[in-house]
Amino acid sequence: MTTTQEELLPSTRRALLHRIAVAQAEGRAPSLVAAVVRDGRAVWHGARTSVDGHGPDENVQYRIGSITKTFTAVLVLRLRDEGVLDLGDPLEKHVPGTGAGEATVAELLAHTSGLAAESPAPWWERTSGSLRPELADVLGEQPFLHPVGRRFHYSNPGYTLLGALVEKLRGASWGEVLRREVLEPLGLDRTSVRPRAPHAGGWAVHPWADVMLSEPSEDLGRMAPAGQLWSTTGDLARFAVFLTQGDDRVLSAQTVREMRTPAAPAETADVADGSAYGLGLQIQQRDGRLLVGHSGSLPGFLANLTISVADDVAAVVLANCTSGPMLSTVGADLVRIVAEAEPRIPEPWRPMPEVDPSVMELAGQWYWGTYGFGLRLTADGLASLEPLSGGGRRSRFRANGDGTWTGLEGYYAGELLKAVRRPDGSVDHLDLGSFVFTRQPYDEGASVPGGVDPEGWRGIG
User: Fold this and answer.
1) Helices (H), 195-259
2) Among candidate residues 206, 193, 107, 98, the one with its CA nearest the CA of residue 153
């Protein structure tokens, strides 16, 4: 993969280098590598290391921990898109006898299954997966800590079950299915279940002394779908492009957009923190910017993938230490540096290629009772309905081809919008999920439920 660092301004490149240099020095990481993606390709790569004369490039593997979960989620959503399963299916329908089968596929993806965060002792990240050969060994005697579907509770065993689901329905190992269905189509040839040279070694840095201890690198066995993968900044940069744009060979743009949509009820602290979880992706609001991606950690390694879809900027940060630099903060800062220093230049405005007169007459001002709304038709074929002033319910609508429109977001997501016409064909009102929108507030000439006071509008006299 060739990075084109010249595409960023020198001042931006220096700011990026300064940020990772501070992170590596203050976080005391043996090495730290990063990449920035813009316009669908990597435009910068940087590295800082404690070894003189050695700077890891975009092809050096690091362990990426729980970023693996996003790959596993992609495999599950492929099965859904093919019609092999439904996200509402209980696990028991496809993988019977686990003892956790009442949780649905969606709940496992969104960490709302109620399962424990970790497998029973010994510490699974630092011991061989051979100690947990069966799903029962991963789940333990009491797998559930919370009622199913009621709260967000991050669960590594939950993603182990999703890996088992993939294996059962595909008839092959999780790693083989991942290679065949995701890694090869996306060209991620430096992402693998086991490390392949060149790769970094994992280290623990003493909290009170500048000395290091080598960390073991275990094969996680059954737990692999939750955190096994090794990858590079080059490959994760390509993966970030996929999570932004989709790729019909793997998942459509619509499905990756679904992955980026909150799917779990947020805890009170999460609401305050501006964080949520989608289908295999973490979501966070930071500095007025919506960020999606995932972090990962295993003994000896830290990893982060951060994407701002609105800015079309993503960052990858990898380090080979058990603790130290806060890579989620570093990733968000790298995205912010580029987005603020070199803001995205929007595509030129272009008019619609054609417009249906019956659709055109819906554009303009409408009233729900006394609330004013504007309906705008956009060149992408959608209709946008939003308040004329202040906050309130707003949504975009997709035409269904039969004169009706379906809401795409917010309060009106999935709701049907249609024009109700008089016998002469003129529009009487808009019906949106039974709400009536008229051209004037409580229009006397329109069919308003409950009727309109015949005395009309009046003051106090």
Assistant:
1) 224-227, 233-245, 253-259
2) 107
344 CB burial (10 A radius; 0-12, 13-18, 19+)? middle
DSSP state at residue 144: B
Q: Are strands 435-438 and 427-432 parallel, antiparallel or unpaired?
A: antiparallel
- Closest listed residue to residue 310, CA positions, set 285, 333, 331, 330: 285
Q: How far apart are CA 198 and CA 57, in angstroms?
A: 10
For residues 397-424, give the mean pLDDT: 95
* Calpha distance 438→427 (Å, rounded): 9
> In whole angstroms, what is the distance from residue 183 CA to residue 19 CA?
30
pLDDT, one tens digit per residue, over 136-188 is 999 999 999 999 999 999 999 999 999 999 999 999 999 999 999 999 999 99
Contact at 8 Å (CB) between 329 and 319?
no
Confidence of residue 4 (pLDDT cuts 50, 70, 90): very low
Residue 403 structure tokens:
């004169």
Alpha-carbon distance 23 to 20, whole Å?
5
Cis preceding linkage at 90, omega within 30: no
Work out the average pLDDT over 366-378.
96
pTM metric for this prediction: 0.91
